[in-house]
From TrEMBL, chains A, B:
Top enzyme category: hydrolase
Catalyzed reactions per annotation: an N-acyl-L-alpha-aminoacyl-tRNA + H2O = an N-acyl-L-amino acid + a tRNA + H(+)
Keywords, in A-Z order: Hydrolase
Similarity comment: Belongs to the PTH2 family.
Example of a GO cellular component annotation carried by this entry: cytosol
Function: The natural substrate for this enzyme may be peptidyl-tRNAs which drop off the ribosome during protein synthesis.
E.C. numbers: 3.1.1.29
Name the UniProt record assigns to this protein: Peptidyl-tRNA hydrolase
Molecular function (Gene Ontology), one example: peptidyl-tRNA hydrolase activity
Pfam families membership: PTH2
Alphabetized SUPFAM superfamilies for the sequence: Peptidyl-tRNA hydrolase II (SSF102462)
Top-rank taxon: Archaea
Length: 112, 112
């Protein structure tokens, strides 16, 4: 079981900002995850990988694939108080889910 | 309501690694948070700040303060599969809790 979080690297977020958006996406997708998958993922150490994304349209396309695969997912938009314009899409979390199913969605992306 | 996550910047984590540790800490502290505080925090957009930490002993001292203030918190140790030695303390999440109480714990730290 793992969760993949895709963070946009094309919008110049600082490290702390990016980390907060990743955490936001991670928690939101987790909240949409069934109890059994949650337990299994946490029991295995809540494995997470953070991957490079390069645009809003890419994140939405990956979210569509996650949806078709039946995985929980969450797209995060920034409130825009700092650094970014309000509503900017910053991150997508996919899973937790089985590694091979998550890889169908994000397997082509590079580690951040 | 906010959650503060302190990430160590003294151990050379890459951006993706750091973000994963921050997300891990955030979720773990959230899981120890009461239902009412969870709802209030999420209703306000699950505000998070990511702060600079500079050592394991600092994170444990802040965790003690959080404990005395009655806040949920979580210290994360890395499994050590990549980049770090197994068991390395990487991040501390404090809250969600009222802004002024969280600031009693982490108010002196700088934004990452």
């Amino acid at each position: 079981m793992k969760q993949a979080i895709v963070a946009r690297v094309d919008i110049g977020m600082g490290t702390g900002k990016l980390a907060a958006q990743v955490a936001h996406a991670s928690l939101s997708a987790y909240e949409d995850t069934g109890e059994r998958a949650r337990r299994e993922w946490k029991g295995g150490g809540q494995k997470k990988v953070v991957l490079k994304g390069d645009g809003e349209s890419q994140l939405f396309e990956l979210a569509d694939v996650a949806d078709r695969e039946g995985l929980p997912y969450a797209v995060v938009r920034d409130a825009g108080h700092t650094q970014l314009d309000p509503g900017t899409v910053t991150a997508l979390a996919v899973g937790p889910g089985p590694d091979n199913v998550v890889d169908k969605v994000t397997g082509d992306l590079s580690l951040l």
